[in-house]
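Figure S4 source data
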Amino acid sequence: MPRIHIVTDSGARFSNPRLVRHFPVTILPNTIDIAGARYLEGVDIDVDQAFELISSHGKPPIVEPPSENDYAEQYARLSHFCDAIISVHPSRELSSSWSNGRLAAQQVSSSCEIAVVDSQSLCAGQGMLIRVAARAAHEQETAEEVIQTVRQAVNRIYSVYCVRNVDFLRANGFMKPSHAVLSTQLGIKPFISLEDGNLIVIEKVRTRGEIIERLVEFLVEFTELEDAVVLQDQKHITEETRVMQDRLALEFPGQHFPFTMYSATMASYLGTEATGVAVLENEVDEFDYDF
């Protein structure tokens, strides 16, 4: 088996945190600036503490990804005992992390191959791609096969969120101010989709029941799920998530739908009042058709 190490940043979230303890994964922390105070995500501050501070400040924090030098130092260190490094980054449309990793890889003089991958996602979607990389590194024979598997999986990851407070969407430019004001006045909650690495408003709902219904409908569109996770804004399971899990148990017998808080990095875009789901669709063999 090739000796492969995975690198990512702290914006990634995992339905099973034990993943990073059982596989060679290094997580470099993002720096989160909340009202002038700077924290290393996951080091100086955990996710629920970050949510509390972000919520009390009321404005989007500034998220700084690991720098080019941070990545270069990590790649150089790992290159001494790895055949390949797979560096998984949030969408280049939303973060400079991928660009920093790409420039850093060019600095490293080594026979170790460094694949810098744009996940075209954030948060749990990014974490799912890391899980794909870890599994492929354990199962496949060459580094080239592992890297190809990871790159192909990018297009099988989907995420949607329902945002109950539109202030951060407006501040970040994802909603026009007039649309945000109207949504607030009418009690309308936007649905946000991650498409081609961008956050896009795709529709709007009003009630909690409609939120649950729309998230379930989104998941039911997939006939085969390799991985799925519910994202919420609290540490402990919410009633919304519990109802969703009950509904999904009927739609997908035997399929597990774990939950976790979305990352503080994701909260910098959406705010601290959202519910979502992330999905990794099963790979379909192009020759596997019913005739």
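Figure S5 source data
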Amino acid sequence: MSLIEITHLSKYYGKSRGIEDVSLQVEEGEIFGFIGPNGAGKSTTIRLLLSLIYPTGGSATIFGKDVIKFGPEIRQEIGYLPSEVFYYDKMKVIDLLKYSASFYKKDCTKRIQELAELMELDLKRRIDDLSYGNKKKVGIVQGLLHSPKLIMLDEPTAGLDPLMQQRFFDLILEENRKGATVFFSSHILSEVQRLCNRVAIIREGEIVTIEDIKTLQHNNYKKIRVTAEGLEPAVFDINGATNLQKEDGEITFFFKGDINQVIRQIGAQPVSDVLIEEPTLEEIFMHYYA
């Protein structure tokens, strides 16, 4: 049985769509990516799984138990980091974390100290004295202090500097090695590609595809920019090329297929510069899932 099982889950806010007919499974021990543009329904899905909101239709189970019927019991084994963190401003960090730890049936003192040290978080400071990035660190420690079996991350790296982002990724990978399952929501494709085994892509509240990362990367478009005087886009009108455009002596297009084919085509032309890069997530939606 899958650790998370979502079956035809829908949520409407009046007439406004949250998510519609979402079905997916997350296996125990995997790092599962959940990606899509802002407003696609990622946070709604996570809040439904945590039974912070209730579905309009469909169902979901975690650890084989219905998320609504067994919500409090399930949440004992879940660590959750929301996309936005809000706290009691006047509290000190350590008091907030001790208060959070009191909800769990275990001693989290040592774990709090370890995580705070790792994330370079000053436990003696007051919440309202912290920057947005440091408040995010509090959220990370709070979500992991009870060593949960399931870690749910909603846009977790917003506000963290690159060094702390890397430290956070290392921490999540270590938790996964210890046996934790991770459900990782993001709109940044590169983050998901670094961490995840499989990925579901959601757009406008509906699942577009569920694939393993290797397949997603292999099937992806490349974004190609060729600088050459006098060349016309039609030169690169080959099988797999789309959205050919020319501006200021630069030809840009997307290519999906055998990259050697397009490299041979470029090599046969008098070009002065070539750039081949990964497209943004938004560009993948435009060209891969149109």
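DSSP finds ten helices and 14 strands in the chain. The chain has a mean pLDDT of 90.
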